[in-house]
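Researcher: Final request for today, and then I'll write up notes for the group meeting. The sequence and the SMILES for zinc ion follow.
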Amino acid sequence: MGTSAFAEHYQCRSCSRSDLQLIVDLGSQPLANSFLSRDELLQMEPTYPLPLLYCRNCHLVQIPPATNAQAIFSDYLYMSSYTRSWVDHARAYVEKMTQRFKLGPQSRVIEIASNDGYLLQFLCRKGIPALGIEPAANVAKLAEDKGIPTRVAFFGKETAHALVAEGLAADLTVANNVLAHVPDLDDFVGGFAVILKSEGVATFEFPHLANLIGQTQFDTIYHEHFSYISLIAARTFFSRHALRVFDVEKLPTHGGSLRLYVCRENAGHATTLAVDALIEVERTLGLDRTETFENFAGACRRVKNDLLKFLIAAAEDGKLVCGYGAPAKGNTLLNFCGARSDLVAFTVDRNPHKQNRFLPGTHIPILPPEEIAVKQPDYVLILPWNIKTEICQQMDHVRSWGGKFVVAVPELNVF
Ligand SMILES: [Zn+2]
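Model: Predicted protein-zinc ion complex:
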């Protein structure tokens, strides 16, 4: 670690101070969700630096802005409904919130980055007024087609003021896996200080920095993922907008996430003991100390070297290796390793919008999952390791021809 051109050039996304340190440089990478058509393989492909930075002032781990968010999100391919376990998670969330905060026909729930309505559909079925805010027009249309009211907009103070002016203040706002993806964190968080009713609750789910560091999940670093958040850093940016974290839960999603419950500073929701307890855990883990991040950089290099050694050995033995899944995190891993179709022949994905396209940077072809039974690879490298159990169950037939599964993170495992 130390100073670098990156650290000197940028200001912190949360506190605006110029006190950043380079943790690890993942090289120059294409946008992790910019899947390519066959024609695009012939064209120049934009890449952007991908350094991970740490703010010594407010402890937010972050990457610098690569390009404007509009370009990233306007034709976004990720649609939540394609992941079964994620829809189950959304259904359980709606049940829990409906009971805890006594939501009913008199309430209003607003989801930020509501995608294709995978979550709000469960509120609509209960007769609870729901509104989605979704920046990608093509994805918002899918929600509207299902009868889920959705506005095409980026969320921030301006959008929040407009909604409140229409009488659309919220009893509950949902922001699952969006906080980390917001380029202007301060404006985004400020929007909740506008849109919440006086006793309203905002929940936020995001991958916990503790898991990124503790389990070497460096492949969750990509350009669309701007911030890597601890409770220490979150409490600081919420309090800047007179918002208070009053409860926190740990979730297994995305390799280990936090769900924060946030309200206005003077609202009636009592702060639970879980909040201070987790702050203590984070201090013990060293999430506010530079040495912690120096050790993390060494662990990232080990994952890269071990995966490359495995892939090269497999290639020299004449083994066929394919991937499973085409998640953003897989692209960070494969591009950091420089592994192309000579080492990973193809990958498969259930999402038909990704099939017959190519991974950005590595240009590995994406096929339908049925192709695995046809080609019978010796090894299936599972790229979305967070749902590896589900994938192993679905793809159990791989074992019938002696095939094995491989994950690279947090360390190489062939099973
Ligand atoms: Zn900062």
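Model: Residues 98 and 104 are 7 Å apart (CA to CA). The chain has a mean pLDDT of 92.
Researcher: Thanks, that's everything.
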